[in-house]
Records
---
Amino acid sequence: MRGSLAGLLLVYSAISLPATGYIMQEISYCGYGDEEGNITFQYAITFNHLVALGYSSKENMFLPNQFMLDKMWPVVRDFAIEFNSKPDMLNYVKSEERRCKDQIKTFWNDTAQRSVKPSMEVFSPEQFYGENLPLLICHVWGFYPQDIVVVWIKNEKALVKNVTEAVRVGDWTYQVVAKLDLRDSLPQDTYTCVVRHESLDTPMMKSWRAGLTFVQIITISVSAAIFTLGLVSLVIGVICWRGARRRGYTPIPGYNETS
């Protein structure tokens, strides 16, 4: 019967409308309406994005759209009467409504209502996206839902929030990057990034204190190794030279042993 309705609407549109094409749609909507968990189900047949007739759960019947074009209104009205008088369409829509109510809570809990705990890291990069200022970064990622609070604490005193808006990662999780200017920091200062999220029973936090960066540690370690190697070589050379002198060996100036 839905196919018959589409055919008749097409005939009337060919008579009354310019030859610009048409769109027929069968639309079902299943919504988890409010905090009390009320479920909203809607079913409609549209013609060129205009609802031709729809199902009313409250009245348990199909209702035609009174604002259809004059030449299409009789067709829509007659099919609404036919759908309401025969059980096939009503049974079909009622089964869709039952399926909506049976499945939506499971889908809602597994998607929109799920909660994923964040991960976090605090670090001071050598350079951050072209910025040369000394920065401290608090990277928080892998959390859901989006709402999150990130606060910087300096020496047990809360600072003004400096948080970029959480952005989608693409796997149904979010991330946020909080930056802090370190130009006024002192070596003894301690910074703590505190994260509050509905998935956490207690706030998550990590602390950071000014010190050598990873690159600086590597540079100093390599320099120290080279210096130690040079010092060992010098000591060995001095020991060998002193031993040779004790054995009475004296190099002859200008003497070439191979000549």
---
Amino acid sequence: MKKIKFFIVFAMMSTFALQAQTFKVGATIGLPAADAADISTLVVGLDAYYYFTDIDDTVEIGATAGFRNFFGDEIEVLGQTVEFDDAQFVPLAAAARLKLFGIVSGGADIGYALGITDGLDGGFYFRPVVGIDIADTIELNASYENISDAANWGNINVGVLFEF
């Protein structure tokens, strides 16, 4: 019985391996928005995408994981300077893209962002994104990203992804 279960699992994994798949890795840089604009100055991020569909398909479905760092700001409050620490998140999400004309794509990442800085719990993660493919190996994209923790950690960003 164990051999049959092993064979079934092996066959399923082999089937997934034979399907067309795409792996992308990249970085983003952005300006804080929503509540984050009051206490941070800049946002940088790293992203990794794994699409279960081929890069040339009209609809791409996959998963993504990343890292976001909101750099803390110094602000004046009643004559005192208050310094805010960096806020860091790890977004984990499903990703979907609709590709038009083989070059332009649009879609969204929806999931949960884990707060990894002390005092941040994490929350619902939503990122609508538009992109342009260059030579089938580079994607330039722009997006608005929001993480709903106790505050709304939003940012407007641009990024680049490299396909492997």
---
Amino acid sequence: MAGGILPDREIQHLFDTGGIRAERALDADQIQPASLDLRLGTVAYRVRASFLPGRGHPVVDKLARFSMHEIDLKGGAVLETGCVYIVPLLESLALPGDVRAAANPKSSTGRLDIFTRVMSDGAQEFDKVPAGYRGPLFLEISPRTFPIVVRPGSRLSQIRFRTGDAQLGEAELAALHERERLTSAADANISGGGIALSVDLVGDGAGLVGYRGKRHTGVVDVDRRAAQTVLDFWEPIHRAGAGELVLDPDEFYILVSHEAVHVPPAFAAEMTPFDPLVGEFRVHYAGFFDPGFGHSPAGGSGSRAVLEVRSHDVPFILEHGQIVGRLVYERMAALPERLYGTDLNSNYQAQGLKLSKHFR
């Protein structure tokens, strides 16, 4: 198998050969073109604080020390804002020696400002699973803006499997952009192994540039689509002056990239963390972009990247066109059988500024 990110059929093969195990049958749409959705188990543990198990220590040992309360999820349960929960996942791993994995929140999870991180036994960092790992997976969940309802099988996180060195270098990325047009920018800013993305603060014809999450709202059921009214949870933000936005500390914003993005079928992409030296704010919880995102035959003509933005400590002024992140591209080990977009009836193909699927 060539080095790269494992596509859908190779993820299925891992299931068939015991590399991925689950306590119940897979959901029909659980395997994505370049990732696997992870499902919550039957119980959540409210813990005093986030933690890592550390080398040689299983997660359950730390749960025995730090758990404050056990919550049965089987009938659905509310997870409150400002609290930290650990949930054993239905999926566990017995990875081959040459396959490693990395996790990230799903797009809808990030757009709800739900902070999630995957842990494995012996982990010294979040969201990374070493090659050859055998053991359970756990999800740390901390709702930041809205309380949420979850149940067994709810899917908040996703995991990718890799072999070898999949990331494109700067020269390879420039050559791919020359062939495939990866961004709509007239002059693509390629450096540091990624393509720069900037923020759109001009907005649409009505001047809408984004949304700010409201406080003290009702709950969002993560498994129900189009169940909530936008204005009950979000304050629309319209263009101000020449295109500036003051980010208030600890407020949550949904914005959108100025550029449209294209991920060709033989590649996948990921938004890298923004350099804190350039501004004290975080952009984009959910970093995975599947093969076919913004790809014309898959129902897209370039799709803009939705940006989940939070300022820290001090107010920060964003300006239209300011760089807010970089998109790193990686090779697929093989072409996926289905692409993001029309093949999967994907929620965010050909998107502009768009809230999560839970709002109508």
---
Amino acid sequence: MSKAIYPGSFDPVTFGHLDVISRASKVVDHLIVGVLNNTSKSPLFSVEERVTMLKKAVKSLPNVEIQSFSGLLVDFAAASGASVIVRGLRAVTDFEYELQMSQTNRKIAPEVDTVFFTTSLQYAYLSSSTVKEIAMFGGDISQFVPDFVAAEVEKKFAEKGECHEQNRTVD
């Protein structure tokens, strides 16, 4: 049985992430989406909230499991019995970083390979950071994330008092 891990922050999960998850789930028998609990960052959502949103977003994919993790990705892969790491690539800059990471991971854990999925063209520009920035300024993010995620993002910014309505004029 082939088992892979698709790691990330998913803060929040976007249609780009879901595209990679869907495509990767067709290539492996079991896909674990690993939600990174990175203590050096200040995410918008807690790891538990991100796990919950991802579970809801992938409920129609029976071979996809959502788990949180911290520490080294290769250690999480070993503990999960996964021999493949899935990564998405949007642009050349992603490739340079991801190649370096995959080579480092391969050095630490030679039994783990990295497979790259190029992002579908309609999501090549999309990132969680962009989604958060648009939402923070009162923009519509419904074309970038599932509706329930958009509602959670808007709610979170409202709770934090960080949502700024932008004055828009039409010429």
